[in-house]
């Protein structure tokens, strides 16, 4: 009997629990839930009723799910940490909408769940629909919020590529990714190394550019779980809607949410 086989047999006899757990430890499948805005009524397809969001948080709590920080997932892909435990879920928000402060924050504190907010700085303390830098600082003080890049002014890179010359487009991309990171780090004192692509639009050259500018992970919009076979530079996220409640939410968490987000992805 060869030495590696002997060692494997001995490990199985001496440490059966460790050997049995090894395959499970190598597996990873987790939904990243993307939200945009909240309110008492459904103003548009991007709005979720605050009451529905609380229903979802209750469901996660009551059914044994664990909401973990997005950084924990990224560290796993970068081999800086172990695979997140089974039934792990990630919550993120794009755009830093003002309803994050008025509606989402109280529930995040109530249920003690971590959230990553992807910010495009041109809107902050400027657009009526967005939060202010002071509000973002208040969120940071809770210890439950992280802040990452959503580019500088949320361009549609598909449309910009068609409208601009190649050199102009390259300059736009670099400016959007660099200025966003620099502004967020300056205002909030966080390390920005993750990027959510506006409208979920990305391409191989955009992924390479993001990597060259120091981003360790980027995120798309695709209706499926993140698994160990995904690239850390193109991790999928579910676009959560107000209809994701009860059985529909359970199906999403179980990985049966295909066919979603189609209209959004055609932008």
TrEMBL record:
Residues 1-20 form the signal peptide. Residues 87-267 form the NodB homology domain. GO terms for molecular function: hydrolase activity, acting on carbon-nitrogen (but not peptide) bonds. InterPro entries: Glyco_hydro/deAcase_b/a-brl (IPR011330), NODB_dom (IPR002509), Polysacch_Deacetylase (IPR051398). It comes from the Bacteria. Pfam families: Polysacc_deac_1. The keyword Signal applies. Keywords: Signal. GO terms for biological process: carbohydrate metabolic process. This is Polysaccharide deacetylase family protein. It comes from Geobacter metallireducens.
